UniProtKB/TrEMBL annotation:
<feature type="compositionally biased region" description="Low complexity">
    <location>
        <begin position="19"/>
        <end position="34"/>
    </location>
</feature>
<dbReference type="InterPro" id="IPR036237">
    <property type="entry name" value="Xyl_isomerase-like_sf"/>
</dbReference>
<feature type="domain" description="Xylose isomerase-like TIM barrel">
    <location>
        <begin position="150"/>
        <end position="415"/>
    </location>
</feature>
<comment type="similarity">
    <text>Belongs to the AP endonuclease 2 family.</text>
</comment>
<keyword id="KW-0862">Zinc</keyword>
<dbReference type="InterPro" id="IPR013022">
    <property type="entry name" value="Xyl_isomerase-like_TIM-brl"/>
</dbReference>
<keyword id="KW-0378">Hydrolase</keyword>
<feature type="compositionally biased region" description="Basic and acidic residues">
    <location>
        <begin position="66"/>
        <end position="78"/>
    </location>
</feature>
<dbReference type="Pfam" id="PF01261">
    <property type="entry name" value="AP_endonuc_2"/>
</dbReference>
<keyword id="KW-0479">Metal-binding</keyword>
<dbReference type="InterPro" id="IPR018246">
    <property type="entry name" value="AP_endonuc_F2_Zn_BS"/>
</dbReference>
<feature type="compositionally biased region" description="Polar residues">
    <location>
        <begin position="1"/>
        <end position="10"/>
    </location>
</feature>
<protein>
    <recommendedName>
        <fullName>Xylose isomerase-like TIM barrel domain-containing protein</fullName>
    </recommendedName>
</protein>
<dbReference type="InterPro" id="IPR001719">
    <property type="entry name" value="AP_endonuc_2"/>
</dbReference>
<keyword id="KW-0234">DNA repair</keyword>
<feature type="compositionally biased region" description="Basic and acidic residues">
    <location>
        <begin position="442"/>
        <end position="456"/>
    </location>
</feature>
<feature type="region of interest" description="Disordered">
    <location>
        <begin position="1"/>
        <end position="100"/>
    </location>
</feature>
Length: 479
């Protein structure tokens, strides 16, 4: 509940997925006075006191015009100020005692391999664990809420933001928020939920563009980048993932690689421990940086401390950029290229998304697992690949727009369960049951999040065309 915008210098950010955005990450409240109230105030020479309007939804529009109240001599008596009630912690609907058993048990025995291992962090336990599969969940109510939501979904891993992904600055963490998060990270034996650092992948702000050569804009991006990473350090999280950025047409790709590496090298000196995880992008052939494996390798080549740099592969981005995953042969070839051109040792995370767009379509349009152009077979290959063990595998798939929290989690709970189910099936059973499982899953998904009807022709179509741009790739925006 990430999804999906890395170059705020040239575009307005767009919502990629309602499901993974923090419900607490609303834009700053802006107070406006209506023109009518302003005129009245000016003509009467009186003061105006303006009411502000706020919203809890992360997709709300800040700065809605609000009515102004003109002070008069006959002002009604003031009401007594309300005393805010302390919020119950943990929220009853997310309380640990309501969490289901974690999916992925019994644990699937992965096949042995002679391939180089990935860049997973040292495990916090010697016990066998399922793959660290989860979703990008909300931090509404504070960062600890993300761990509670992951537990509610039966997940073994997760992704989250550490602040609003659409603001340059946010208030610092309260000490209580940090303490709650760190306590919940602990093992169940220690009273926590058992989400150690290797199971959590933070997603960075969508505003960051460290590939932009403009010094002022680069500095602004860097401060946001550094703040994100410092927040990870405060919470005890070790993996920070972000979009590398764009040249914005103002420099060469090589110059952009150097700008990005400069930021990585600098933040490694200023914030300890946290590993910077570069995400591959979708729009190949554009100004976007990191769409091809050699571009990721070029950035890593300029990083001084290579123990603190990794790559997160987004399956939809891979497919959009021309890397096929649909069959066992195509999947194996794509991963062979990654090892050859980047190195398995740099693989630190996966974003699991099917694609609404065709192979090499250069469009980042996420679809639920197995219901897009990649298909379930590609994700079964990934779930049975030992290279994916010990790193966060994160769903960023669509969930109902403005749905209740349980609606979002219901989608991901079913996808998590589905992925473990097809992982455990042998090849013979998979061939026999593949179509049946796909049909069953499509009906389940449609019951929770029905596909949107196609826009009608004419004026309504024109109106919906503008609205539909919200579903377009952040990569398209980045140009």
């Amino acid at each position: 509940m990430p999804p999906r915008r890395s170059t705020a210098s040239v575009i307005d950010t767009k919502r990629e997925r309602s499901s993974s955005s923090s419900l607490s990450d609303a834009p700053p409240t802006i107070t406006k006075t209506t023109s009518k109230a302003k005129a009245k105030s000016k003509s009467n020479g009186t003061k105006t006191a303006v009411k502000s309007k706020t919203t809890d939804a992360d997709d709300a529009i800040a700065g809605d015009d609000v009515e102004a109240k003109t002070e008069t001599e006959a002002e009604p008596p003031k009401k007594k100020a309300r005393v805010a009630k302390a919020k119950i912690w943990p929220p009853p609907e997310l309380a640990p005692e309501s969490h289901p058993a974690r999916h992925g048990y019994p644990i699937f025995t992965l096949p042995s391999t002679s391939k180089a291992s990935n860049g997973a962090l040292p495990p916090s336990t010697t016990e066998a664990r399922p793959m660290l599969l989860g979703a990008h969940v909300s931090i509404a109510g504070g960062p600890a809420g993300a761990l509670l939501r992951a537990g509610k979904a039966g997940a073994n891993g997760l992704a989250m933001f550490t602040k609003s992904q659409r603001q340059w600055k946010s208030n610092p963490f309260e000490p209580e928020a940090i303490e709650r998060f760190r306590n919940l990270m602990k093992s169940k034996e220690e009273g926590g939920l058992g989400y150690p650092p290797e199971s959590i992948l933070v997603h960075g702000s969508y505003l960051i563009n460290l590939g932009n050569p403009d010094e002022s804009k680069w500095n602004t991006s860097y401060e946001c980048f550094k703040d994100d990473i410092y927040r990870c350090h405060q919470l005890g999280i070790k993996l920070y993932n972000w979009h590398p950025g764009s040249t914005v047409g103002a420099c060469t790709k090589q110059e952009s690689f150097a700008s990005i590496a400069k930021a990585i090298n600098r933040v490694h000196k200023e914030v300890p421990e946290v590993v910077t995880v570069i995400e591959n992008m979708a729009n190949a052939g554009s100004n976007i940086v990191g769409t091809a494996f050699p571009e990721l390798a070029a950035i890593i080549g300029l990083v001084e401390d290579k123990t603190r740099v990794r790559v997160c592969l987004d399956t939809c981005h891979l497919f959009a950029a021309g890397y096929d995953l649909r069959t066992p042969e195509a999947y194996a070839e794509t991963m062979r290229k990654f090892d050859e051109e980047v190195g398995n040792g740099y693989l630190g995370g996966i974003h699991l998304n099917d694609s609404k767009a065709d192979l090499a379509g250069n469009k980042d349009l996420h679809e639920n697992i197995g219901l897009g152009k990649i298909g379930l077979t590609g994700f079964r290959c990934l779930m049975r690949d030992p290279l994916m063990s010990g790193i966060p595998l994160v769903l960023e798939t669509p969930a109902p727009e403005k749905a209740l929290e349980v609606g979002d989690l219901a989608i991901w709970m079913k996808e998590i369960k589905l992925l473990y189910e097809i992982q455990a099936m042998d090849d013979k059973d998979w061939i026999l049951k593949k179509v049946e499982i796909e049909d069953r899953w499509r009906k389940e998904r449609d019951s929770i999040n029905p596909p949107k009807e196609k826009a009608p022709k004419g004026k309504a179509a024109s109106k919906n065309k503008k609205k539909g741009k919200k579903e377009e790739s952040e990569d398209d925006d980045d140009e």
